[in-house]
Design a protein that fits this description.
The chain has 102 residues and is an alpha+beta fold. 30% of the residues lie in helices and 27% in strands. It has one domain. Strands 1, 2, 3 and 6 form a four-stranded antiparallel β-sheet that branches. It has a two-stranded antiparallel sheet with strand order 4-5.
Amino acid sequence: MKIDYTQEIKDLILNNYDPVLLQSEESEYTVKKSLTELHKDIAGVLPSLWIDESDVYEVLQELGFKYFLSSKDDVMDSETNEVLVPGKTLLLYFLEKKTANY
């Protein structure tokens, strides 16, 4: 029997991030993550055998988080100027990181 960690997933996401509703609303506090990266983050805190990517996806949708096309630049060798890792365009969730106000 699978244990339902939906509420814990919601709490983890909402305690750390707010949704970015438009790509143009991206700020210096915007974090861009794939579903796999978010799942890995959450599975690092909750029992990973009981958390599926589909659980994280459903919570993100329910909470109004959006994904957008985002480009990553080529990673270049500083000495030879050769491409070490080619850039790519990905669909990533845009999450506004909550900051503490002291």
